[in-house]
């Protein structure tokens, strides 16, 4: 790993930091702006749009996007560097995560030139916000199991169905929708991808109030929603291929989940009085904070591996999967311990609480995240099992164990573990990093899906026994 910036990267970091210092204040421990509470306060969306406009004017929006998309034409490592610097400042990036991280890149890659020219510039400037209409009740992480119908009627499509857990639908201008256009073919081949205006007649948005008080999730109902065929992205029946592009964009999004982290925990412990001084003076508290610090540094160094690969122009390996698995559990442990230090007062999220009550709010949020990512965690574990980057997964698990985990056989020509899943797990192929062309030609096997679930449990045990918690 290379821990230092190259001269060009260092110059870009200075440029990014100078811009941020000119338009925003540095984040202090306990700031709520990066939390859902900060995002939902009055005027937050307008402030975020104003910042995004200045960011675009300064050349820091769409850093790694090609210039023909309206981006800077920079490198992936420059995007990582900017994200690192922006995380230190009191700004709200979340309103545009789906727009710029997932959906507009999908439109640019899979849509028409007219669609790209219409939607990319206003999204980069923060003028329009997008949401992702994928998940459905009862569908879990199996996108291809969706039941929302798109029926052709002349030059139009009529949409009926329901989506759920749609972040930002209540303030989004547009959304990307995957619907079933042909129920007579295998489920992965009968999907079509569309964009639509979130004010289209027949579309109803119902915010979901969570136990934390947040309302960023929504149910979205479609009742005879009529959209023209010109709002289709990709060919009819190619919705699965287009969705793969969106899912792959999600895997490579940069940026850290909002804290609290070790710095907030130290600040909290410093402000809590005990019989023998502050909580920070207690050796037992110091030991726990040291443990969290070590885990944080481990994540930091793992990210350096990704940054090193990007800096060398290489494709990052499965290190991001390690980060995703460890980050959520670490955040849950830190927030739980912070509430332990606060005692009975830990349930209060008022501004009068130490660090503005962010530990209680964060615990609610991370529980939501953990519950919604149960299937994704198994996907990330299989990515690690299936990976041979730097011998990392093979060294940790052993090639024979990897074969046991996924019922796979070594492919000597490709030098990787070739997964063979039933049709019901086809999405797992995609999330494991296979390209769209390869996934298209995977034939389902008559294999009991419960066996795959058994593999998941074995994968968990094997990874835990080797330090992947």
Task: Walk me through the structure.
This protein has 469 residues and is of the alpha+beta class. It is built from 17 helices and twelve strands. It has helices at residues 7-23, 36-39, 44-57, 76-86, 97-110, 113-124, 239-251, 262-271, 283-311, 319-342, 358-372, 374-386, 392-397, 399-406, 426-431, 436-440, 449-465; strands at 130-133, 149-153, 156-163, 174-180, 191-197, 203-208, 217-228, 232-233, 273-274, 277-278, 409-411, 416-418. The chain has a four-stranded mixed β-sheet with strand order 1-4-5-8. A four-stranded antiparallel β-sheet has the order 2-3-7-6, with no helix packed on it. Helix 8 (262-271) packs parallel to helix 10. The longest helix has 29 residues, at 283-311.
